Every structure is written in structure tokens, then in C-alpha cells.
């Protein structure tokens, strides 16, 4: 595979989250490096966080391992046990099945970038720690549910 041309890869903004959660992802963008390189067994994304932005809702995965490494700037890792500052070159790992919700926030005035690598389990289930939401991913399709398993109404946000 030839070298990936970062300047010509599509930048994804927004979120697959339903309302009102999607709006909370303002200031976050990503480039899907693994997809661009034809990888199928794990995902690799370069995520950019503008000042004040967060990577995702705080979550944990049932089947997928996840690894992050800060490439530039400063990110604050938020987990159940509190906050940890990560600077460029520092990393964190999140084993599948560990019920400790995590996400990264840019609490600085500078842009931050991090690399995230994750296995591509299918099906996969993620639980969002701070809100009444979970997702089931299968065949590339996301189904959002309340934590009690009832379907999330995408039209009303309930």
C-alpha cells in the first residue's frame, strides 16, 4: 500500500449519535486512516479536537479494545476515577469489557490531535456512562437503545 496522503483524505465531522447528543460533538473531526489504507481488522483514526471539544460521550466497549496516543496538543482523559492529562507522545489503553467509561476533552486554548486504534468487533456494543444510551453495531449499522434495552426514538430524542 502506498503512503497515505493525509492532505487528500476526507475529514469527517459530526456524529452518529442521536439528538440531543450529536450536538455535543461540535469541534471534533477525524480522518479514517485505516479505512483509507484498506484495513479491515482494526480501525485507525486521527482525531482533531478544537478547544473545548470532546472525542465522544464517555463510553466503554463490550468486545473492542481501544488505544489512544496524543500526537499534538494536550488532551484530558476522563474516566470513572477522574481526570488524567495526556500530552503529545503519551497514550492510554482501554481493554474490551472493562466497564470504565472514557473520553478525551480538549480543555486548552490550542487544537489537539490524537490517534485512536480499535478492533472492529461485529457485532459490538457500547454503553455511555453519563447518559441513558447504549449502541449496538452490526454490519456497519448503529441501533441506539436506552440502557434498559428499549429502542431510542431518533425522531423525538426519547
- What is the N-to-C succession of helices and strands? EEHEEEEEEEEEEE
How is the main sheet built?
Answer: 6 strands, antiparallel
Give me the Rg, rounded.
Answer: 15 Å
The proportion of residues forming helix, as a percent range, comes to under 10%
How much strand content do the residues show? 35-45%
**Could you report the average pLDDT, rounded to the nearest whole number?**
95
Q: Strand pairing plus helix content: what structural class? A: mainly beta
Question: How many helical elements?
Answer: 1
Quantity of strands, as a count: 13
Strand arrangement in the largest pleated sheet:
1-2-3-10-5-8
What form results from the Cα inertia axes? globular
In whole angstroms, how far apart are the ends? 45 Å
Low-confidence stretches: none
Report on this structure.
- The protein is mostly beta strands and 158 residues long.
- It is built from 1 helix and 13 strands, in the order E-E-H-E-E-E-E-E-E-E-E-E-E-E.
- The protein has a 6-stranded antiparallel β-sheet. Strands 4-11-12-13 form a 4-stranded antiparallel β-sheet, with no helix packed on it. Strands 7-6-9 form a 3-stranded antiparallel β-sheet, with no helix packed on it.
- The longest helix is centred in the first third of the chain and has 4 residues, at 33-36.
- The chain is globular and about 40 Å long.
Amino acid at each position: 500500500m502506498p503512503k497515505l496522503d493525509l492532505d487528500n483524505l476526507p475529514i469527517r465531522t459530526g456524529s452518529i449519535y442521536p439528538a440531543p447528543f450529536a450536538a455535543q460533538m461540535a469541534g471534533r473531526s477525524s480522518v479514517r486512516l485505516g479505512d483509507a489504507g484498506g484495513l479491515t481488522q482494526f480501525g485507525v483514526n486521527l482525531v482533531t479536537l478544537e478547544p473545548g471539544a470532546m472525542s465522544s460521550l464517555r463510553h466503554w466497549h463490550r468486545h473492542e479494545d481501544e488505544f489512544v496516543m496524543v500526537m499534538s496538543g494536550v488532551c484530558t482523559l476522563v474516566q470513572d476515577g477522574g481526570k488524567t492529562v495526556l500530552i503529545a507522545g503519551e497514550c492510554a489503553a482501554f481493554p474490551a469489557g472493562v466497564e470504565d467509561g472514557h473520553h478525551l476533552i480538549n480543555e486548552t486554548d490550542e487544537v489537539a490531535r490524537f490517534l485512536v486504534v480499535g478492533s472492529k468487533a461485529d457485532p459490538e456494543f457500547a454503553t455511555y456512562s453519563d447518559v441513558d444510551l447504549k449502541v449496538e453495531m452490526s454490519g456497519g449499522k448503529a441501533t441506539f437503545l436506552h440502557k434498559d434495552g428499549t429502542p431510542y426514538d431518533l425522531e423525538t430524542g426519547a
